[in-house]
Amino acid sequence: MRKEVDFKVLAIFCADLHLSLTPPPYRSAEPDWFTAMARPLKELTDLQKKHNCPIFCAGDIFDKWNAPAELINFAMTHLPYMHCIPGQHDLPEHDLGQIERSAYWTLVKASVIHHMDHCISFPVQPYILLTAFPFGTEVISCPKKKGIKEIALTHQYNWVPGASYKGDVPKDHQVDSDRKEFKGYDLVVSGDNHIPFEWTGTPHFINCGGFMNRKSNDAWHPVVWLLRSDDIVVAHRLDTSKDMYLDTVTAEKMEEQLDFDLTNMIDGLGKLGTDLIDVRQAFLRAFRGEPGRRMKMLLKAMEE
Predict the structure, then answer these.
(1) Can you say whether residue 56 is alpha, beta or left, with left for phi > 0 and alpha for psi between -120 and 50 degrees?
(2) Fewer CB within 10 A of the end CB, N or C, for the chain?
């Protein structure tokens, strides 16, 4: 990642804020989760004030589409004004057609953020155009215009070797020069993959990465990206010096147990017949022992 030098910053890119009412297990050591989330948001706000430039967010402001009022109020207070596309976590049932049901849309209606519709081009500077591709839409190539820098902003899982999660990854979303949908763009900025990376091929590709470390396997430093007037994009490392984490072993156990419980519950409910008695028995089994915790897991499973 390049060092910042004294060039004018034209735009700031970020993604995957995943604001949540309660901390994930790995961050449960924080004495106040809202204070912890406010720190990087203030740094982002300060960067915008320093450089007097727009911020573009490539999706997933919230961790859940139906964020409660307390969290929405927090976002209204601490989010800088941003031009945004929604990620799947911002959308009911991951469905762009239901966006108006979401907490994301509440921020839009309150003019806290500006929503960019599919394929709407936004002028960053007189010679720079940014085209938006929210989650659930495909990037569409564009004809190259002389003297215009074309940027695509998308929320889809893209990866390069060394910057992907274990398990299945979409082969057709590996970033390389054969991605026909990227033709005509000088820069593609993506969200969804929480591992930040830069690919300096054609086009230039930036994956924003997670805005905060939220899980025990988040072994990278959170960054936002600055587009400079010399057409170079640099990573600005966010200050994590005050962040507090649960020890990795304990956090991994908690995360594995949560994933295991959710998987079992989803599988079990998926095998039910239509008989009301079957449903009743399944719920009784699920809530036996720890009803409050199980109810929370069921609600999360239903959202997933």
Answers:
(1) beta
(2) C
Give the strand order in the sheet containing 187-191. 121-125, 128-133, 149-155, 187-191, 204-207, 197-199
Judge whether 132 and 118 are in contact, CB under 8 Å.
yes
Domain that holds residue 282: 248-303
E strand or H helix that includes residue 45: helix 33-51
Q: How far apart are CA 266 and CA 218, in angstroms?
A: 26
pLDDT tens profile 44-91: 999 999 999 999 999 999 999 999 999 999 999 999 999 999 999 999
Start-to-end CA span in the chain (Å): 35
Number of folded domains in the chain?
2
Say whether pTM exceeds 0.85. Answer: no
Q: Tell me, yes or no, whether 39 and 170 share the same domain.
A: yes
Average pLDDT of the chain?
86
How far is the C-alpha of 14 from the C-alpha of 275, rounded, in Å? 47
**Bridge partners (DSSP) listed for residue 151:** 130, 187
CA–CA distance, 226 with 3 (Å, rounded to integer): 11
Classify burial at 84, counting beta carbons within 10 Å of its beta carbon; exposed 0-12, middle 13-18, buried 19 or more: buried
Which of residues 217, 237, 257 is at a domain's end?
237
277 assigned to some structural domain: yes
Cis omega (within 30 of 0) for bond into 203: yes
User: Would 243 be classed as within a structural domain?
Assistant: no
How far apart CA 41 and CA 78 sit, in angstroms, is: 6
- pLDDT digits over 124-147, tens only? 888 999 999 999 999 999 988 888
